[in-house]
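Now for a sample.
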Amino acid sequence: MVGIGFDTLAELLKGLYIYVKCRLNSDTINHSGQMPELPEVETVVRGVRPNLEGRTITDVWLDWPRGLVGPAPEVFVERLKGQRVQSIARRAKYIVIRLDADYLLIHLKMTGRLYVVPDDFKEHADQWVHFKFQLDNAHQLRFSDSRKFGRVYLIENVEEVTGALGPEPLSDEFTLDIFRARLSKRKGTIKPLLLNQAFVAGVGNIYADESLHIAHILPTRKAESLTPSEVEALWQAIRQALARGLEREGASVNWYRKPDGSKGSAQESLFVYGQTGQVCRTCQQAVIEKIVVGQRGTHFCPNCQK
């Protein structure tokens, strides 16, 4: 075993400190690991639906079996052949494709892109394609993922994957009473709670920060400290932030692109996320700050949020 001298160890620790500090202070670096959330995934679903529903999968190609959850690759391919796409929907951050006998689920994770193109079409994202689903109309459903964090599931019962997820925040079932009841059973810091997919589905770092800002609530507040009026404000803010993001077809702060390759525009109207050091658009007084809450970079206005 080779020993490490004190000076060498000190330099390593110093370098690690500088690296971590840079990551915490850099919105650009942090953006590289931002996962698509409800508005982005829903936009992808709406984008591929017209070209996918009703089509039959005739063949499958993959070169990254570690991204597959479920059967072995050869079984995966054979089970999919001949199955017709009945519908495509979203549940939380999952893309849910209902087939004749199975469900094909896709999670984009950090850098995933999903798109339908003609067989001979060349796309920049093709260099990271790890799954191709051949369709019966000379088109392909392609799943591109440069960092290979994305996951593809083939299951018979969708509840195997989605059963533990919380309510959909833009659905009619996500009422104030339900939100209040669920919140009353929870303790701890409010920001990490909003990121918990078992509490509410589809909210990630971007829209958690935006929701808390709209509701004028500090991300470091304890869930049990919120007043009834603050709970209502947060419920409304979650729906508002997500609806705004969806209307603008998602926030392209990193790898996210719509199925046609273009960017969403939600990033152009964010109040706090990625706005570190900028004057708050809401109060026009304080500047947006960034801290770490629950191991996540967190943006807020120290004047607007209490």
